[in-house]
């Protein structure tokens, strides 16, 4: 008997209402679908049903119809194609059908369809798996979205652990299909991204065509700074191979320079046959201070001349005459001190003080740099009178400033210096030797006058002569890899400098050894020369812990670091070796070498490591003493001892930080230490427990590694200067460091900020530095003032000039700060506003090692400025900036028809505007914006780019900067202007 449930009338009504509601909800969905969509859904359902039936003859036509319907659908960025939408519920059914199909061709067709359907499923790798099992039809037939989906899954699948070699081969075959499709359809960026993801960028070379190789190479080179080591080198080398494939030798040379591969530069140079192209390459190598040997070339003399920078001063003077700025300027003309705010009691800073005279000598050199004319040293008597206004090392610095005036002009400059080599004063002679090094810097002369004049004094018995000659050699041969310099035999520059490291003469003072290390680092910059670095490390290991505290030993450490500049992982062994030196010196040196090795790479992991170093807190011995004093006695004293233990008074604290015993005077230099054996006997009689309590040893203090933190801050700026995004991120980090960091970190931040923006006075950085130039901590203020000079170097920036003038009024009582303000003013007007200290050149893609080394050297010196540049002794270190000084001009040259093989200057129209980033942009985008038309020679500001205004001439180099060779355009048709009315 079946039991029936009785429904109440109320329940029956409710059920009826519910039954009515269901179709009401479902009906609008059916109404939304058009008749066309309904028919498509029914057709697809019917096709799937046919595939489920036992009649196998229907399988192939059904699958072909299905394929046609799916391909006919238009794909949209915002919606899933209708056939895929309607087929989605049948996805698992299709996979079951696939397993049951026997015929191979039908099975492959089914796999193709499932591969496309898998785009809408949650199975991550079905698109790839079924594509591999499919018929391998052209990959683009299923649409761009399908190809993109395959590429997206490919990177995940490739990186799975335990993938067999056979599977990798299948994936690689599919990758090649995807890349081939991308390259044919102007999707070069997607192709590069895929190959970078699976670490097979070498495959790209066979797919790139001449028409798109420029876009591909530009993308690879712009990705390099954002890619970790060693992938960044692989990207640059791939671009190099592509350029060579299409005979773009000049661009290939630039790539070889980026990876510091000098043998490759030689090979590319040998392949180039166009004489004008070879000359342009020689100019580029000279700008980067890579000097080649052209013996055996048909045009060897012309190439050597262009490569040697010997005529750079002539082109610079031509620019100066064009701008009408040849008239020499005086320091007072720069300061304009009459515009500084008047003070109620007059100017208390003596105008003829030693520091002001020193500043005037430096400013005179900076402002008239390279012009070969000034008002202070025009005549021998006048110059001598000017030198003698200074004392000792001040005379050396003043005499060396003549090297700046005659910069690049070896013939005239050496003749001018010669008159001071026979004066009786050693300081002026030493300064003149340094001036010779400054004039010769970056110039290759067949006679090698610098080594002929300076080597004789390297082993002198007078330490001051050694100082001038050793630093002079370092500047003259910075980044020079010439055999005459590097040969390890008598009278070789490197050999003589190495001898100084182990010299035991009385004149081999620490200052001389420190400078020898720095000069070796400048000459061998970026070579990773393990032999020279090992000798310098040995010299440091021979020093006692006390000797390593000498500030000059830091320059030996800097020399080692410069040898490994931009060498990345080649420095790893040395970084570990340097940790064996006693702390804090060992920690500081190893960090310094590591940051130098990754300078300009933008390596995020290294920056994170340096930030972690900055987060540590180290108490200096003085701070610990102060803390212990504020804590008073350690723990409560026993009741019996209370009357005999007065409260600790200020100054009544002995060396260990505990209160002095009863009866000792307020200042007790000879008070016995409680923490030493036998100290208990000095305690108050009748209080043995107290003495015993105080005799417990204090916990060992952490070593003061603050010097390592200062280097780490500098390192963040040095590494992040490689790309704009990294620089922006570093700016934010410095904001945090300067607010919450230790004093030593705050002092280093202004210098690191200046490294991010050398000769590029951005308003936010200027405002930050201006704020810290008024800081209560003198060292922070000094560093900020000098950093302002670096940021505005050679720009004549009006905002900065006004800031510095206000600073001069603010610091008028402080001679040291005022001297730095004057130097910053001189740097701002460097070369009367025609020069730059920025180490990047060639459209900001090449980083000059010697320029970077000079900026790092000066910033590193300022980390301990009171013991180096501001100690009235080593202010000559400011001349290391010479290596970074370059005119920011554009001068155009053409072949001289009267003298075949030589070049002459030609003035043409160029458009100069703000550079636009065109990486990965479609078509042929404009590379500059907001341009103005000028006639060469012209000045290029930071971030500006130039292009020829018409087609009359073609440029040999794609980047118009420095000296540019032009050639006649054979297809040029001059525009004929009609005069008819």
Walk me through what this model shows.
Residues 44-340 form the RPN1 N-terminal domain. Residues 10-32 have a biased composition (Basic and acidic residues). Keywords: Proteasome, Repeat. Helix 8 packs antiparallel against helix 9 and helix 37 (706-720) packs antiparallel against helix 38. Mean pLDDT is 78; it is low at 1-5, 22-31, 344-351 and 630-696. With 981 residues, the protein is mostly helical. It is elongated. It contains 44 helices and twelve strands. The longest helix is centred in the first third of the chain and has 24 residues, at 9-32. The strands form four sheets. Strands 5, 6, 9, 11 and 12 form a five-stranded mixed beta sheet that branches. Strands 8-7-10 form a three-stranded antiparallel beta sheet, with no helix packed on it. Among the domains are: 37-115; 138-207, no CATH class; 209-308; 598-617 and 704-745, no CATH class; 888-974, no CATH class. 52% of the residues lie in helices and 5% in strands. Strand 2 and strand 3 form a beta hairpin.
């Amino acid at each position: 008997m079946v039991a029936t449930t009785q429904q109440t009338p109320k329940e029956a009504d409710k059920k009826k209402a519910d039954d009515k509601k269901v179709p009401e909800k479902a009906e609008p969905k059916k109404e939304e679908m058009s008749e066309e969509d309904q028919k498509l859904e029914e057709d697809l359902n019917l096709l799937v049903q046919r595939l489920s039936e036992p009649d196998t003859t229907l399988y192939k036509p059904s699958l072909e119809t299905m394929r046609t319907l799916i391909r006919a659908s238009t794909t949209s960025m915002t919606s899933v194609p209708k056939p895929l939408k309607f087929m989605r519920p049948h996805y698992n059914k299709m996979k079951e059908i696939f397993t049951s199909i026997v015929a191979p061709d039908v099975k492959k067709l089914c796999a193709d369809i499932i591969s496309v359907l898998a785009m809408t499923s949650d199975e991550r790798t079905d698109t790839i798996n079924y594509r591999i099992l499919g018929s391998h039809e052209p990959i683009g037939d299923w649409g761009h979205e399908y190809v993109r989906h395959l590429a997206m899954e490919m990177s995940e699948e490739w990186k799975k652990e335990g993938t067999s070699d056979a599977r990798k081969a299948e994936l690689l075959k599919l990758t090649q299909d995807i890349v081939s499709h991308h390259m044919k359809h102007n999707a070069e960026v997607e192709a590069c991204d895929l190959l970078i993801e699976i670490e097979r960028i070498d495959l790209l070379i066979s797919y790139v065509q001449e028409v798109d190789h420029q876009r591909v190479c530009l993308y690879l080179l712009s990705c390099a700074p954002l890619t970790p080591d060693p992938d960044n080198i692989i990207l640059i080398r791939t671009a190099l191979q592509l350029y060579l494939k299409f005979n773009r030798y000049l661009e290939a040379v630039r790539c070889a320079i980026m990876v510091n591969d000098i043998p490759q530069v030689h090979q590319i140079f040998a392949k180039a046959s166009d004489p004008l192209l070879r000359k342009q390459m020689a100019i580029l190598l000279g700008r980067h201070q890579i000097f080649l040997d052209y013996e055996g070339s048909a045009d060897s003399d012309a190439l050597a001349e262009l490569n040697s920078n010997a005529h750079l001063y002539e082109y610079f003077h031509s620019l100066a005459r064009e701008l009408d700025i040849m008239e020499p300027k005086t320091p007072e003309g720069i300061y304009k001190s009459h515009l500084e705010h008047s003070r109620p009691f007059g100017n208390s800073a003596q105008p003829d003080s030693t520091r002001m005279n020193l500043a005037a000598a430096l400013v005179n050199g900076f402002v008239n740099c390279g012009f070969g004319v000034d008002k202070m040293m025009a005549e021998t008597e006048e110059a001598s009178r000017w030198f003698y206004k200074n004392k000792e090392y001040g005379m050396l610095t003043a005499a060396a400033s003549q090297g700046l005036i005659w910069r690049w002009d070896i013939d005239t400059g050496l003749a001018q210096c010669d008159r001071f080599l026979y004066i009786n004063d050693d300081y002026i002679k030493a300064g003149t030797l340094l001036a010779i090094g400054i004039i010769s810097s970056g110039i290759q002369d067949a006679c090698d006058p610098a080594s002929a004049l300076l080597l004789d004094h390297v082993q002198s018995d007078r330490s001051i002569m050694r100082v001038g000659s050793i630093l002079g050699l370092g500047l003259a041969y910075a980044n020079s890899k010439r055999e005459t310099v590097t040969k390890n035999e008598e009278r070789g520059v490197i050999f003589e400098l190495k001898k100084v490291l182990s010299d035991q003469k009385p004149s081999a003072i620490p200052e001389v050894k420190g400078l020898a290390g720095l000069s070796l680092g400048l000459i061998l910059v970026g070579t990773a020369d393990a032999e020279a670095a090992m000798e310098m490390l040995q010299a440091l290991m021979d020093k006692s812990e006390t000797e390593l505290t000498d500030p000059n030993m830091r320059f030996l450490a800097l020399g080692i670091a410069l040898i490994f500049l931009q060498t990345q992982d080649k420095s790893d062994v040395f970084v570990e070796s340097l940790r064996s030196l006693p702390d804090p010196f060992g920690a500081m040196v190893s960090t310094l070498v590591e940051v130098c090795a990754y300078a300009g790479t933008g390596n995020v992991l290294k920056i994170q490591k340096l930030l972690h170093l900055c987060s540590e807190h180290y108490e200096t011995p003085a701070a610990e003493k102060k803390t212990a004093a504020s804590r008073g006695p350690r723990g409560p004293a026993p009741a019996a001892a209370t009357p005999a233990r007065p409260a600790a008074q200020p100054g009544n604290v002995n060396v260990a930080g505990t209160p002095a015993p009863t009866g000792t005077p307020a200042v007790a230099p000879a008070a016995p230490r409680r923490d030493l054996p036998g100290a208990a006997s000095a305690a108050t009689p009748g209080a043995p427990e107290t003495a015993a309590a105080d005799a417990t040893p204090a916990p060992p203090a952490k070593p003061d590694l603050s010097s390592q933190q200062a280097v780490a801050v500098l390192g963040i700026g040095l590494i992040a200067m490689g790309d704009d995004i990294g620089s922006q991120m570093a700016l934010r980090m410095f904001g945090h460091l300067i607010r919450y960091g230790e004093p030593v970190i705050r002092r280093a931040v202004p210098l690191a900020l200046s490294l991010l923006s050398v000769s590029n006075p951005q308003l936010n950085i200027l405002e930050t530095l201006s704020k810290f130039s008024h800081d209560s901590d003198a060292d922070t203020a000094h560093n900020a003032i000098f950093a302002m000079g670096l940021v505005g170097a050679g720009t004549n920036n009006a905002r900065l000039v006004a800031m510095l003038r206000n600073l001069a009024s603010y610091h008028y009582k402080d001679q040291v700060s005022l001297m730095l303000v004057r130097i910053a003013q001189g740097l701002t007007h460097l070369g009367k506003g025609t020069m730059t200290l920025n180490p990047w050149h060639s459209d900001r893609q090449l980083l000059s090692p010697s320029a970077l080394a000079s900026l790092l050297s000066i910033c590193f010196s300022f980390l301990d400025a009171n013991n180096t540049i501001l100690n009235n002794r080593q202010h000559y270190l400011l001349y290391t900036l010479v290596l970074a000084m370059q005119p920011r001009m554009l001068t155009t040259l053409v072949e001289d028809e009267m003298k075949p093989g030589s070049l002459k200057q030609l003035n043409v129209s160029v458009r100069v505007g703000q550079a636009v980033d065109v990486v990965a942009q479609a078509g042929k985008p404009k590379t500059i914006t907001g341009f103005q038309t000028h006639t060469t020679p012209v000045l290029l500001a930071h971030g500006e780019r130039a292009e020829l205004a018409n087609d009359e001439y073609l440029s040999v180099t794609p980047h118009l900067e420095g000296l540019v060779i032009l050639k006649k355009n054979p297809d040029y048709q001059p525009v004929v202007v009609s005069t008819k009315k």
